[in-house]
Amino acid sequence: MSRFAAVAFDLDDTLCRHDHDVDALYRRAFEEAGVEPFGEPEELWPLLDGPPDPDDRVGYLGAGFARLAAQHGRDVDPVALAAAFEAVADESRVAYLPGATEALAAAAAAGPVGVLTNGPEDRQRAKIEALGLDDLVDAIVYAGDLPRRKPHAEPFERLTAALSVDAEETLYVGNSLSYDVAGAHNAGLRSAWLRASPDDAPGAYGPDHVVDSLAEIADLLAEGRGADGREPGGEAATTEPEESR
Questions:
Q1: pLDDT of 237 over the 70 cut
Q2: Which of 66, 99, 134, 181 is deepest in the core (most CB within 10 A)?
């Protein structure tokens, strides 16, 4: 018997990632905007402000292009570049992260399975279909279509209601401390933070579990001790002090 009644997952950078040829996509965006290319994708990503803004993806990308144009001394319309980037991106070009299908199978063996994404359905639906998630999960909540997104409690409440489970019996797996972990905490769910690197620490956040790979989810769902060595209801076992980053 699993230690949780249900398991739910974030979508982007938790279950899947984009599978584009990023260099080709970057060049196509400049071609679409009629702008002579400058810079490289690797220069753009660090200039973006945290996770994408579901309300204004063009503005989010445009701010990065504005900074990149300033660094290269180019006089361009960064919003037009960002809009071109969004126009040529194919949302169906996604692939499962390592261990994702195994984690979904382990979750299904434990109980109902859900997906909660901050994006709207018109953007995320292509990813869901490409991954075949309709056949693998019991409920999908698109917080981008709700009045409030993660880390607000409402999307999580919609999710647990759709799964017909109590919040405190539900594990939510996500890669973002400020959206996934904070949101799960606010709604009373247990959280498993999928960190990008073993050197990453939760800082001021307190995920119930910390995993370095989705392959650890099966052990985490097992009865008794989880993959992080934590008893149900106990403290998360991490080696890093919470104030470190």
A1: no
A2: 181
SS3 at position 233: coil
Question: How many Cα atoms are found within 13 Å in the side-chain-facing hemisphere of 217?
Answer: 33
* Mean pLDDT over the full length of the chain: 89
pTM: predicted TM-score of the whole model, two decimal places: 0.79
d(CA 175, CA 195): 6
How far apart CA 6 and CA 136 sit, in angstroms, is 13
Q: What is the DSSP letter of 126?
A: H
Write down the pLDDT at residue 234: 42
Residue 34 has pLDDT above 60, yes or no: yes
| Residue 95: φ, ψ to 5° | -140, 150
Q: What is the pLDDT of residues 89-111, one digit of tens each?
A: 888 889 999 999 999 999 999 99
Q: Residue 212: exposed, middle, or buried by beta-carbon count in 10 A (0-12, 13-18, 19+)?
A: middle
My answer on whether omega of the bond before 151 falls inside 30° of 0, hence cis, is yes
**214, amino acid identity:** L
Yes or no: say if 228 and 220 are a contact pair by the CB < 8 Å rule. yes
**DSSP letters spanning 35-87:** ----S-HHHHGGGS-SS--TT-HHHHHHHHHHHHHHHTT----HHHHHHHHHH
Tell me which architecture the domain covering 6-17+94-224 has in CATH. Answer: 3-Layer(aba) Sandwich (3.40)
Q: Which amino acid is at 119?
A: G
**53 or 163: whose pLDDT is higher?**
163
In terms of Cβ atoms closer than 10 Å to its own Cβ (0-12, 13-18, 19+), residue 220 is buried
DSSP 133: G
